[in-house]
Amino acid sequence: MPPLHPKTMNDEGGAKAKPRKPKPATLSNSHALFNSTIRKPCLKQILFTFLLVLALYALFNAFFNPTLDTASSIFLSAGDTSVTYPAVKVYLYDLPTRFTYGVINHHSLARGGSRSAGDKSPLKYPGHQHMSEWYLFSDLTRPESERVGSPVVRVSNPEDAELFFVPFFSSLSLIVNPVRPAGSVPEKPPVYSDEENQEALVEWLERQEYWKKNNGRDHVFVASDPNAMYRVIDRVKNSVLLVSDFGRVRPDQGSLVKDIVVPYSHRIRTYPGGVSVDKRKTLLFFMGNRYRKEGGKIRDTLFQILENEKDVVVKHGAQSRESRRAASQGMHTSKFCLHPAGDTPSACRLFDAIVSLCIPVIVSDSIELPFEDTIDYRKIAVFVETASAIKPGYLVSKLRTFTSDRILEYQKELKEVKRYFEYDELDGAVNEIWRQVSKKLPLIKLMINRDKRLVKKEPDCSCICVNQTVLR
Amino acid sequence: MPPLHPKTMNDEGGAKAKPRKPKPATLSNSHALFNSTIRKPCLKQILFTFLLVLALYALFNAFFNPTLDTASSIFLSAGDTSVTYPAVKVYLYDLPTRFTYGVINHHSLARGGSRSAGDKSPLKYPGHQHMSEWYLFSDLTRPESERVGSPVVRVSNPEDAELFFVPFFSSLSLIVNPVRPAGSVPEKPPVYSDEENQEALVEWLERQEYWKKNNGRDHVFVASDPNAMYRVIDRVKNSVLLVSDFGRVRPDQGSLVKDIVVPYSHRIRTYPGGVSVDKRKTLLFFMGNRYRKEGGKIRDTLFQILENEKDVVVKHGAQSRESRRAASQGMHTSKFCLHPAGDTPSACRLFDAIVSLCIPVIVSDSIELPFEDTIDYRKIAVFVETASAIKPGYLVSKLRTFTSDRILEYQKELKEVKRYFEYDELDGAVNEIWRQVSKKLPLIKLMINRDKRLVKKEPDCSCICVNQTVLR
């Protein structure tokens, strides 16, 4: 697997880099160089060398921030307007292979792949919309020197860790066995069981010292597919879950306070051009499954309303390479892209639209959005209440009121935030997810410390609410 | 008022300090100084000066971190294990005087103080256990150069602010009118009404643009006395409240997620000595009101159990300078200090004990503690469930099992964390409170952005829970 982030800046570092000092070799060389031009008197020479060393050392320090020795201290100076915190220390569990590469292997085998016993080439994680689990895992396995801009640092000793990352490929595990047409009988029963693997994972974890220490509260799981980990969710609900939405978790299992909403890994290619209205002739585009369960039932109604509108393209389409190509083409040439709820409030389509600079029109009342502390989605998307969206004519007339200038403004904002949704960009989705994870740490530490000293072990919740005008 | 934090490091800075460069005057002087010793050749001289400038500039940069231009960017380098974030930008409301110095003036007048019309000397905020409101206000009014180590920076333009500090002296306001003995009739009715002032404050705020903008969600109030702001709490419950505990607020008004627990301002003097068992002959000390309301009812039972125990001092005592002197003496010469609940779960006594290096014995099942993400209170205090504490003999026999070494360990830990409870220390309680405030910012921003784009305005809470084993 090639490194996902290009190597930049320098190759130094490591999990526990000390404040760097210029290498003695470099210094002697510089010294010699200048020595040849300034020979006497001795005092001058010494002073000169001293200043040179000082200049080099200080420059080094100025460009590469010094490392802090203690985890809790922060480095600050008077009148300064920035604050330096130590990077959050994350331990990557070395899970038994069955939970990581074993899942990739089973996925490949179930699709006719075969590996000879001697094959040492790395297994390739297959591309799909919930592959954030792969990007986060491979980010942590990279040398620190390549993890440019990361707010977390990997530590090799769990004793040093503040958080524990459990790299189970929970979303891939769900789709190991290919979906078969209803009624068809498989030639032989599947050899892989996602449910068994979920349970085996939790059993393995529950034997680990650091899981038991804080009841999993400082552990981080990726459960990006809304069904991922469903079998064991109650046993890992203390942990930080990286999810796509909260459509299939109860409030006691997941919340905006405890967990993190991560973007889908977009499936169509990023629009390479700039902002423009002329190149986007279609007003509104949608391509996808017309019929969905639960929250997605609205889709059929939207199809009926929209399919005969001028400048509007709505197409039924299933997951395939061909569909993706058609969707890319459509999203790259439309001003607005419809984003109705899928089976759960979120869907990959939103992120496809964002990287296409196609303004998302979100018709999904309970949607949760990634990085919403950083991104004001009103600047990049149009939100329409479901009840309004299904009124004939409403949606299209609303969209026609947007001027070209307003559309260009949205596109500029989309271009600004696009990097947050690019998993393979240098300071993209991966770093932002770690940033979100690191922001949870104070509350996690508070809950851990508090939980241990509480003398009464009663259920007890702390909440933050919106629109709460009713007095109890 | 003298500055509470001694001036250190340098005098430069200001609310929006740019990366500093050495002053030209200084440079010319240094240049001249070295010029006299190195006269030729010209190249050498120029090179020398260049290096000197570089060394000075780089040193400057290394010691005083460069300012970041954009609020959202962070400064990171490869392999580095620290992360630099911009300081959180806080706007200090210039409130009408009645909410700040007016409260001090009324407090003074109600105690026979008088001020001539021409008196320009600053009003002195009176010392009391809930004076964090004064320390935070005066910290923000200080020049940035003196706010060493602060994770927040004051901005003069509200448009630049991320948080808004409302410096109403809510706890002082509660005690403006002296408590009179029950049944006594005051000579004339009090001229000051705390309730009126609370309501006037909220009415004033509700007219402010930046209050309306985010429904007060990015506003910060000090409500340290458990009764402070009680009249208007439902109108400010969206805001961040700095409280002593949650004893008198409902879960929809205050929580560990939204709000911050701040320490009382300790009322007895800090123990100046080091760790020691020999100098502390008393096993357990308590001095305070024997009879309290609600959570404090346990006190009378504890008195009965403890008052005849050997090596134990329990004394009834009211608030007075004399009592404080006796309490100082007692806490400085005891190994353990009893901390039963007051009318609410918290009390100032805990912080008096901490700065006395007297190990707190906390008998208050629902107590919330300041800075619990940073401080593991099990290392500095002994927690005893109320039900056990009131069993005769239990408490004293438990405390007698602690060895001298164990007691010294507790004392060492107390010494380590003491600074968090010192409001007038350079990197003490004030900076730590701002740090706690700044850690709330991501969630505040998330809730603000989310609230504005939600199409359905329904009450909706996000929570984090402990001991939640019951499935719904």
TrEMBL record, chains A, B:
Membrane topology per record: Single-pass type II membrane protein
Compartment annotation: Golgi apparatus membrane
Transmembrane annotation, as ranges: 46-64
UniProt region (Disordered), positions on chain: 1-28
Database matches in InterPro entries: Exostosin, Exostosin_GT47
Main location: Golgi
GO annotations of cellular component type: Golgi membrane
Keywords linked to the UniProt accession: Glycosyltransferase, Golgi apparatus, Membrane, Signal-anchor, Transferase, Transmembrane, Transmembrane helix
Presence of keyword Iron-sulfur: no
Domain of life: Eukaryota
Statement: the UniProt record of this protein carries the keyword Ligase: no
Record Pfam families: Exostosin_GT47 (PF03016)
Positions of the Exostosin GT47 domain: 87-398
Gene Ontology MF terms in the entry: glycosyltransferase activity
Protein family membership: Belongs to the glycosyltransferase 47 family.
UniProt-recorded name of the protein: Exostosin GT47 domain-containing protein
